[in-house]
User: Which sequence fits this backbone?
């Protein structure tokens, strides 16, 4: 049984790594990795392959940059060639990036089963490119692996047949569980002149926050206020860096006292920085889940979340009014030690990828061997 797993952008690598590891334990499965090249900088891609012990991809499609349409279309054209050469039994896609929907569409047109890992998440906000990618990928997938209960409910509402939907836990948490100890042996704080639980970690990259001047201003405002109370670490995503420069705000960002700007961090480094942070302020999807597992308070600066379990059970706060003043107030409370305890969501136990391997073997191995 040959499975082609697709990776493209940074949040895909830590999801596919545990799947590839689980597949490799079964001699019946031939696991190949296709990297679309959506993210191409060493800091956004190569470092993850090394740290997550992923083998060199079997194919690298080199499709980075361009508009969403150009990116998606180029990935489809290149991936079709891989499909024709490899003739896989299954195409596995993860998450919600452009590479996810592009490769899922090609597979469906070649009549090859599509497996979507991290299915069913919905923010309800169709202006997010990721939301469209999620809806479309789920609509054409044969098996949908879900991380939280809301995912099951969402898929029911969209009339996806129950037998296609499997609640298995969270493969991104598999990676966290697997690498947590290794990350904890890093010693980055000393070099940064920081102590554990004495800084706020910030990440921002969503187009709805960073693609226009007012959004970038809000971020600057939040960072300035936070930095007047404690130290701030800000690894800057390429999109955010580019836009800060375009809108003439980069010098202002650089001049804020108490803020350390960093390049995008490797997987282990970022895990270490999350675990030691007192609070994280972010607009990321995955970080909401990682902080919930780590029980580190997280403020999500977005209008909606597709991961409601992190708010309902975990340590995540959604500040959907997008008012920087609300963030500032909450930052003060949390720095004062008033934050919720949080619980670990069901099945976030480090074994999701193994469950997925078992289910796929049961369903597809007989048909294809
Ligand atoms: C993509 C995903 C998003 C994910 C994020 C994590 C989609 C629709 N979005 O957003 O869900 O949370 O990755 O990082 O797929 N760039 C570089 N170097 C790189 C990668 C990108 O300079 O290695 C530049 C691109 O040229 C572009 C910008 O950063 O100008 C954005 O990259 P893109 O892949 O379009 O989307 P992200 O914002 O990274």
Assistant:
């Amino acid at each position: 049984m040959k499975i082609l797993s697709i990776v493209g952008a940074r949040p895909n690598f830590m999801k596919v790594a545990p799947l590839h590891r689980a597949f490799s334990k079964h001699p019946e499965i031939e696991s190949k990795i296709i990297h679309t090249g959506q993210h191409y900088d060493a800091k956004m891609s190569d470092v993850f392959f090394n740290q997550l012990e992923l083998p060199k991809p079997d194919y690298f499609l080199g499709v980075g940059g361009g508009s969403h349409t150009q990116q998606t279309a180029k990935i489809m054209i290149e991936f079709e060639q891989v499909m024709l050469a490899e003739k896989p039994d299954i195409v596995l896609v993860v998450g919600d990036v452009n590479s996810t929907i592009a490769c899922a569409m090609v597979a469906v047109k070649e009549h090859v089963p599509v497996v979507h890992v991290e299915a069913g998440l919905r923010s309800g906000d169709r202006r997010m490119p990721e939301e469209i990618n999620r809806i479309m990928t789920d609509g054409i997938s044969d098996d949908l692996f879900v991380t939280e209960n809301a995912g099951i409910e969402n898929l029911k509402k969209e009339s996806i047949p129950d037998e296609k939907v499997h609640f298995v836990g969270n493969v991104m948490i598999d990676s966290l569980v697997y690498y947590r100890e290794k990350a904890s042996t890093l010693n980055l704080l000393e070099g940064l002149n920081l102590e554990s639980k004495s800084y706020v970690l910030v990440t921002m990259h969503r187009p709805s926050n960073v693609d226009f001047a007012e959004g970038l201003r809000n971020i600057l405002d939040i960072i300035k206020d936070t930095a007047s109370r404690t130290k701030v670490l800000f690894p800057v995503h390429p999109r955010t860096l580019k836009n800060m420069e375009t809108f003439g705000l980069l010098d202002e960002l650089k001049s804020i006292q108490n803020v350390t700007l960093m390049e995008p961090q490797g997987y282990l480094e970022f895990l270490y920085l999350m675990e030691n942070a007192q609070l994280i302020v972010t607009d990321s999807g995955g970080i909401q889940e990682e902080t919930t597992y780590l029980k580190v308070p997280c403020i999500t600066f977005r209008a909606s979340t597709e991961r409601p379990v992190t708010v309902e059970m975990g340590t995540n706060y959604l500040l959907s009014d997008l008012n920087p003043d609300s963030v500032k107030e909450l930052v003060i409370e949390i720095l004062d030690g008033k934050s919720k305890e949080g619980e670990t969501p069901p099945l976030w136990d480090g074994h999701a990828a193994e469950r997925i391997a078992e289910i796929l073997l049961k369903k597809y191995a007989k048909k294809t061997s």
User: Anything to note?
Assistant: The pocket of uridine-diphosphate-N-acetylglucosamine is lined by residues 9-11, 38-41, 44, 65, 96-98, 129-130, 205, 237-239, 242 (CB under 6 Å).
